[in-house]
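Person: I have long wanted to understand how a fold can be written as tokens. Underneath my words sits a plain record pairing an amino acid chain with its backbone structure tokens. Those tokens are not coordinates but codes from a learned vocabulary of shapes. I should like you to check that the lines agree and flag anything odd. The protein I mean follows directly.
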Amino acid sequence: MSHVLTKSAKGLREASGKTQELPDELREVLKLCRGQFVAEELVADVPLAEQEAVAGALVVLAQTGYLREVMEIETEGLASETDVYDELSVFEFPDAGRNAAMSDSLAQQLRAEVAARRGQRDDETSEQVRQAEAAARQRAEEKSRLEAAELARQEAEERAKREAEARARSEAEEKVRLETLERERAEAEEKAKFEAAERTRRAADEKAKKDAAERARREADARARREAEERELEEMRERIRQRGMKRRRIAIPLLAASLVGPVALVLSVGLIPFEGKRKEFEGRASQMLAAPVKIGSAHFVLVPKPQWQLAQVVLGEGATAVRINRADVSASVASLWSLPESFSALHLDAPTVPLAVLPSLFGEATQTVRLPVTEVTGTGLLLMGSKPVSPPMTFSAAVEAGKFANFSAQGQDPDIGRFAMSAEAVSNVWKLRIQAGQCEIPFGIGKALTDCAIEASFTPTAMNVSRFTGRMYNGDLVVTGQLSWAGPWQGNGTVELTRVDASQWAPAWFKDGFASGTAEFSASGQQPDDLLSGLHIAGKFAIAPGTLNQVDLDRLVQGRGTGEQSRFASLEGNVVFDQGRADFSGLVLTAGALRADGAISIDAAQVASGRLALEVKTGAVRLAMPVTVSGTLAKPDYQR
């Protein structure tokens, strides 16, 4: 049986607040009672922990008249749908009161239900405990498993991270090691090539010295033989003369008298200046060369052979004049009265030839001039630029049909070293070859080169340089190009530098490093001397590796001063030379984590100016700084 209860009038007044007779706990339970309700259902609706207190409160409210019973209904399964209380004996029901009978019935009903459900509750509680313990164990095991899995995952990630870092560090170290080995190998190869080239050059120099010494020895031997033969001949003549003296003692006075006149005549002829013949030689030479010719004096000698000696000869005028100390023209005695149309030989003593005249000598002049000789020889030939570019040379030239066919000259001195020059006319084109121990680039920067070699061809209006090689600052220089003079003088071509020692070119800027690069050049001017002022060179260069002087870029970035030296892996950029000014642009310097970009200029007065942007990247850290470059070519200055 179930009890259906509702509030009494007393209960309504208490619940509405008109009266406040009940304790707060009972008043709260009374407020839960709405309309007609089943006591068991109300108890079942509250949380399990509060059901016992609510059930007791309902009994008290019924006993004290705040609740009244409406009816009793049959219910089955109520005991199984509500939670069970441990004991209902805790409630004390008064024996008297208006609702005592109802309260007793309600209490009895609840006791019966409790007794019926106690065993079931115990079983359910035990099962619930077992299930709760099993679920707790399962949750604990699952938590432990998840924690173990998470710990294993974290350890695996940490181990993988450490392994990746170790692998990256090992790869970086291996890369640095391989780069170092490659750099050392390249440097060793370059050093070996340089040493091999040096050995070859030294061997060539030694061979040239030995050849020169051998030639000098042979010449000395030949001269000694000639002198010995002449002495022997002179001794033989002396013996014959002594034997004849006895036979001709009487005839000597008569013979002497007869010879005085002819001998005096022979000796006096060489002392007589022939002014008329001098002018005649000047006129014929000027007409032949189509240029003014001046001759200081003209003499005719009979010893050692008949010839005209023309002293202080000047061909042309001004800076391009060819000056000859003396010209010996072989001729017969008959030329004293009338000069012939041609001569057998011409010998020039100490001719000085300006470089600017070479294009004319090997160009147009060879096509128009007809020489009245068959052979030209000479000694002391000197090629002259702003200073001598060759030692005094002996030379010879063959003349065919009045035109030069070939030419060769050679000489040596301590300043320039060995010098050999040869030329051959092929189909109106001269093929020229020059080898010199020291030289300067014609119309170039004026830097002395060593081990020079030139291969060129001349036409009436141009010179084509197929290859010009030399050594400069321990590096190699190769030039190809052409020079024309049909109108204004113009030149152009390419320049290639290989392993030039930067520390020799700019010792204040570089401690070490080898530079290589290529460039194109052009020049123009009204005269050959104007080509240098109109010279323009543009190209690219690279130095790898090297060391800067006067600055430590790492210290500069860190703000710890300027420092003294800075090693770099590579430096490259563009370069332009124009009117004595050098502009280096697009500069990129790398040195590990450091990089520098910028431009530097050096004017004609060798004053430097420029800016560099330094940047250092290490992981997520980046440092950047501008640097001002000033000073001079002899002493650069770097400031933050």
Notes: Confidence is low (pLDDT under 50) at residues 74-99, 251-270. The two ends are 102 Å apart (CA to CA). The chain has three domains: 2-127, 274-474, 475-640. Residues 24 and 443 are 121 Å apart (CA to CA).
